[in-house]
Amino acid sequence: MNARCWICCLIITGLTLCAAACARVDGTNRQQLMLTSEAQENQLGAQAYAEVKGSEKPCTDPAAIALVERVGRRLAAVAPNKGFTYEFTVLESQTINAFCLPGGKVAVYTGILPWCQDEASLAAVLGHEIGHAIARHGGERMSQGTLQQAGGQTLAAILEARGVAPTNSQLVMLGFNAGSQYLGVLPYSRQHELEADYLGLIYMAKAGYDPTAAIGFWQRFAALSGKTPTFLSTHPASTDRAARLQAKLPEAQALYQAAPQKFGVGELVPEKYRAKPAG
Ligand SMILES: [Zn+2]
Q1: Catalytic residue positions?
Q2: Average pLDDT, rounded, for the chain
Q3: Number of domains into which the chain is organized
Q4: Is 31 within the bounds of a domain?
Q5: Cα–ligand 1 centroid distance for 184 (angstroms)
Q6: Cα of 162 to ligand 1 centre, how many Å?
Q7: Measured in angstroms, how far is the CA atom of residue 230 from the centroid of ligand 1?
Q8: HEC-encoded secondary structure of 151-186
Q9: How far apart are the first and last CA of the chain?
Q10: pLDDT per residue as tens digits for the range 166-215
């Protein structure tokens, strides 16, 4: 096969795949390649969550647990209903991190609380993480990984031989072999980060938290550059991140004004976690 044929084959394969295996992101309507099912992603999320909870030290501070639960439930109540069974876990660790696995399995490390300072900033973090899960960024990355691993020619041959079978177990398993990396270890793409920023801003505003707090949080966080905590290494600060959020602020402000209950910045994080973080 010459180069031109090969490129044509890739394009045709891509178009065929997209026609058969594309989803749209709830909230932005962006089209995304999706070879996995939500049920498969959620099952992987639940497995990974059980592993995290089994290996990390749980936080026993009732105030911190209540804070995360309260903010998380308010966000979950306004996020698109994807049939998630939300769970919120607080882990006692200096690690500056938080994540939401597919299916709504959320973990917050106490190390991120000093950077949040109040409920609204925590809502910005959790809204962003829930945004990744709602937008199925994990599944999208697994799908992209499957495509890369299968390779254009191999995939084309498989598709030709079997008809387009986007949930074909062999294809899906190629992606799932690397699934755990895609769920939490590798950084999301810039496109995914900006999309999660936007979705998180919308959720926090709908939940009744002042959306301007999100900009303050990301600016504080950008000041951490050079210290490379986990959350920052997987959420690289970009120079235009705050500017992009600022541009979306009028839309978020309108939703905040329309929210049935307004909490402003909400309560402060418990005092023991409020000390100014070493930056
Ligand atoms: Zn992110």
Answers
A1: 129
A2: 81
A3: 1
A4: no
A5: 10
A6: 36
A7: 11
A8: CHHHHHHHHHHHCCCCCCHHHHHHHHHCHHHHHHHC
A9: 56
A10: 444 444 444 444 444 444 445 677 788 889 999 999 999 999 999 999 98
27 located within any domain: no
Q: What's the whole-model pTM score? A: 0.81
Q: How far is CA 167 from CA 19, 157, 175, in A?
A: 14, 16, 11
DSSP 118: B
Distance 7 CA to ligand 1 centre (A): 33
Residue-number span of the structural domain to which 191 is assigned: 39-136+186-270
Q: The tokens of 234 are what?
A: 């997987």
Distance from C-alpha of 183 to C-alpha of 56, rounded to nearest angstrom: 17
**Alpha helix (H) ranges present in 22-151?**
38-55, 62-78, 113-116, 119-134, 137-150
Pair type for strands 105-109 and 87-91: parallel
Strand, coil or helix: 4 = helix
How many Å lie between the centroid of ligand 1 and the Cα of residue 202?
Answer: 15
CA dist., res. 17 & res. 163, Å (int): 11
Closest to 130 in 3D by CA, of 186, 200, 68, 194: 200
Identify residues whose C-beta is under 5 A from ligand 1, the ion: 193, 196, 235
**58 within domain boundaries:** yes
Distance 128 CA to ligand 1 centre (A): 6
Q: In the structure encoding, which two tokens stand for residue 19, read together?
A: 């026609």
pLDDT band at 274 (very low <50, low <70, confident <90, very high): confident
Is position 34 within any domain? no
CA–CA dist 77, 74 (Å, integer): 5
